[in-house]
């Protein structure tokens, strides 16, 4: 479970997954960006944006693996975007 304001950092601090907004916009996006620690004073650059066409208009976004094993972006308690369409019956723990 990842909430807006939290981030996941990759091994060796190269990338991070987080909610962010573009300049002059309050819309929020979930994306993978280069970690500025890795870039040595160069600003973050987006690498992949999950909800480019479905922005979240406020800071209520979260990323969750639901009970069926689907990876979902939520807006509050409502599903905004499914990032996986496959349901699993096994372990749904992220590591």
TrEMBL record:
The keyword Disulfide bond applies. The keyword Acetylation does not apply. Residues 1-95 form the Bulb-type lectin domain. This is Bulb-type lectin domain-containing protein. InterPro entries: Bulb-type_lectin_dom (IPR001480), Bulb-type_lectin_dom_sf (IPR036426). SMART domains: B_lectin. Keywords: Disulfide bond, Glycoprotein, Signal.
